[in-house]
Amino acid sequence: MNDIIQSLSDEFKDICFVKGQRDGRYPYAHSMLIGDYLIDTGISSGFIRKLKRKVSINNVLLSHWHEDHISGNRLLPKAKFFCHIKDKPIIEDVQKMFEFYYVNDDPEQIKLFTTILESLRLKNIKVTEIIKDNDIIEVGDDYKIRVLHTPGHSAGHCCFYEINSKIAFLADIDLSSFGPWYAGIDSNLMEFEESIDKMLALDIDIAVTSHKGIIKGKNNVKEGLTKYKDITIKRDEIILSKLSEVKPLSPKDLANKNLIYKYYTEYELYEIMAEEIMIQLHFDKFLKNNLIEQKENGYILS
Hints:
Blueprint: E1 5-7, E2 15-18, E3 31-34, E4 37-39, H1 45-54, E5 59-61, H2 67-70, E6 80-84, H3 88-92, H4 97-100, H5 107-120, E7 129-131, E8 136-139, E9 143-149, E10 158-162, E11 167-171, H6 189-200, E12 206-209, E13 213-216, H7 218-241, H8 251-254, H9 268-288, E14 292-295, E15 298-301
Parallel strand pairs: 4-5, 5-6, 6-7, 11-12
Antiparallel strand pairs: 1-2, 2-3, 3-4, 8-9, 9-10, 10-11, 12-13, 14-15
C-alpha cells in the first residue's frame, strides 16, 4: 500500500502490518491495523502523520503502557483509546513511568528517562474503554478481535487475535533474540512464561510482534514462541550456575556481569539496574521451586 503499510493476507486485505521507524527498534515499535483500529502508536511521530494521510484511525488498542508503544497517542486526539485496567493509570499519567521503572530516587536515571520521554514527546491521554481477557471487538462485518491478557512484561500487557484470519499481534512477546524483558515494577517472570504458553496454545497463521515484525506459518510461529521461552530457561541455568551451597550471593552481586544483557548499549546505566531486577525475579522463581534458600543477605543453593 505504501512504504510503511503492508497487507498481511490476500483474503483479509484490511489487516495490515505497520512498520515502525528504525525497523521497530527501541524507542519505536511496529503496529498492526485492522480496519480503523490501530494497535499501538509507537511507530514514530512522522510515521503516524504519514499513516493518518493514508487511512482513517478512529480507534487505538494499546497493548501496554511502555513508552515505545504509546508515543503517538497525542497525534490521535479524536480516536477512542482501549487498554487493560492495570495499565490505564500509567497511560493516563506518563510521569508514573519513573516509579514503574524504579528510577524515582536516582538522579542519573531520572535524567536519562526524562531525556527519552521528552524526545518522544509523550503526553497523557484519556483511556476511553477498558478491555479484558477474551473480550471480542467487532470491526465492521468481517473482523473480530479477541483480547488476550498476557501479563509478565507489564501487568496489563495484552495480545490481540483476529479470529477469522488467525492473525495475531503479540506485542512485546516480541520473539526477539534478546528474549523476554521483565524489569518493571509490574513485571513478573512466571506470568510471562505462562503468557507465552497461552500464545503457544493458540492457532496462529501469521504473527506480528512489536520489534521483530512479521512471522508467517503456524510452525514458524510456534517455533519462535518456543525459542523465546527457552531463553528464560537458559537464563535460569546461567544464574543457577553462579550460585553455590556455601557463599550467599544477591542479585546485585550478579548484575553488571552480562548474565541477561549480552552487551550494554547507550542505555547501560538503566540496563544494569534492569538486569538486577530480572535476576531477582529468577531468584523468586527458584525460591518457589525450592532450588535456593535465603542466607544472610543473599541466596545459596538448597
